[in-house]
Specification:
2 helices, mainly beta, 150 residues, globular, nine-stranded mixed sheet
Amino acid sequence: MIYRVSARGLLIENNSVLFIEYRDMDNAIYYSLPGGGQDINIDLAQTLRNEFIEEVGIEIQTGDVILVREFIVSNSRVECWPNGIHQLEIIFDCKRVHDKIEIPATKPDIGMTGIKWIPIDEIKSYNVFPTTDIIDIVKSRSVHYLLNRD
């Protein structure tokens, strides 16, 4: 099992949320907020800005922390975590820096099949991470902690 800290970002535009679409080892599709693991000597905000460029080609600025999610998965069905993962995710509210058209992703993740803008009122009908309640959390205007464990 590996341990890592990750930064993720919630970007809302035109009443839709930006998600990364993934396919797991069982060919199931799921969606996750853009972001990724923190490297040593890179702060979380810079980690997130780098990941947005690499994964979706969008320059962002980070806002407030909206959610801290911890998950512990022993038997992962995700190719990059075959022996499990214990991850701490810090999720930031984000805004696009400017209205430039997205540039192609330069470094997609393992299992990543694309990006998807999911309308806010449809999120609960998708398999999304960190939670289908992400919009309710944002509306509450307080930071939440979420633990997922298998």
